[in-house]
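Continuing the batch. This is chain 6 of the set; chains 1 through 5 are on the previous pages. Same settings as before, nothing changed between runs. Recording input and output for traceability.
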Amino acid sequence: MAMIPWTATVHHDGSPYYVGSHHSALGETVTLRVRAALDAPIQRVFLRTAPDGEQALTPMEHQADDAARQWWSGSLPLHMPRTAYRFVLQTAEGTWTLNAAGLWRHTPTDTDDFKILASSTAPTWTRDAVSYQIFPDRFADGDPMTNVRTGEYACYGREVVARPWGAPPSTARGMGGVEFYGGDLAGIVQRLDYLVDLGVSTLYLTPIFVSPSNHKYDVEDYLHVDPHFGGDAALVALRQALDARGMRLLLDIVPNHCSVTHPWFRAAQTDPHAPTAEFFTFHQRPDGYATWLGVKSLPKLNYRSERLRETMYSGPDAIMRHWLRPPFRIDGWRVDVANMLARQGETQLGHKIGRGVRRAIKEESPDAYLIGEHFFDGSSHLQGDELDACMNYQGFMFPVMRWLAPAAPDAHDRPWSDPVPLPAEAVAAQWLTFYAAIPWQIAMQQFNLLGSHDTARVLTMLGGDVDRLRVAAALLFTFPGVPNVYYGDEIGMVGTRDPDCRRCMDWDPATWNERIRGWYKDLIALRRRSPALIHGGLQVLHAQGATLAFQRQSQEEQLIIVARNGADTLWNLPVRHAGLPNGARLREHFTNAFTTVESGMLSLRGLTGTGVQIWHVEQS
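Output for chain 6:
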């Protein structure tokens, strides 16, 4: 195998191992470090910044080398809220530029420069958090007295239907939102000890506010919990139960649209002079109005209205502020369809409203976690002045699942799908593309997932292959960001796309896949105690054939993760560019096997097919 070139050994990332402080304020200075192999022909290194838009090049100092690496160090004053930087390396082979996307012989644009946020209002508790997503109607029925009864009311012209727990959701057209199983907040409280045993620290609940549907993305009252979930008192009880266990709570808010049954809309539909008429866009009353994706039951909210902004987030008693206060004290919001919020034809207020929402949330609770749903490229909302994170479909889930899952059988009918599994090289490229586009502090807060209430179950996507699920889970818990488990994935639940992915949680332990559950518990525990996974950097080491390998490194710990989606002839992984000297000793997490780096190589003899290894480098 060809030796790793010196260019692959040059590395910097935004982690504390390379950036001196992540709590710096405006006016302070941080120390930056760059490493490379001892034989890298580097003559000088310059730190390139652009204070107030003008380029500045500052020489860096060559520090003392260690057994396998040379180090360069420099100082970065923080004069702007977001400071972008890159490194210019002068070598015997010419001048190179290092930015967050890699090392380049040409001069790149500023887009992928490293970025550091000063005086950041990022939540601190997310660093070792593991989230668990619950679709409340399908998790646990704690109080049958609050259950929806068949025929109790009509939901957009269809009578609601009560279904027995565990019965499969109907796939008949129009039934997805009107079937109820009785899950509620009391049921979540009763099952918290199960979640504590699993190891999760944070709950994310899909919407719980008053709504006619089971999914409740069609809100008709933002200021009250739906009585079928137990009402406001049930949320207070859940908050108290979580406090007793040291757990956090995220709720789902739908500020982009509401239900046609909302009093705001009903008044606006009949009276153009109603106080809430400006909350909506009417082309012709009563039935010509802007909607979410043409769904007539979901009128779109119009953020040209200052009154709507005050009501939703900016006013002293705004909806988003209300739930952050006692007695509810939620720990953050997930913003539904954040990519579409306040965007309506010629009116494009998405970033303006996004910044306003952040200001309001952080004024109310500086440590609140603000994430957004975004199936596409959310990087423009992730620069430190809007969202803390987005649901990381493109930057993590989609490339992982396209690498591990069989080809989609209907890919040719869906242009966004791919009939050919993604190569390992493309997975790494997509990871790094989305990773490089945002500040490191934001990358460490990204909300990573393998599936949700809007996708097929992970095990179903993987064709029922539990070995591939183990690989996917290991990547979820070792990749930078906040890992999120969709309820039931940890016991091997299956299901195709909505509504089948929203089956009732199976509470019969005899049906659980304990092998899968054991993996999840082990990986969750590792994620929550490992310094390298909590705040370590990321370096992709190998992406070729059936093998992906990357390093997570902090001052205290160094891990190498090796994942395979099939048999590979790579028996020895090059690790020279990981900064590992010959003789370095490593222990494998799952097997406790030991090995030693020889000739710059890490032996992979124990990884013969689809599987994963997590190597701990022993500290000398």
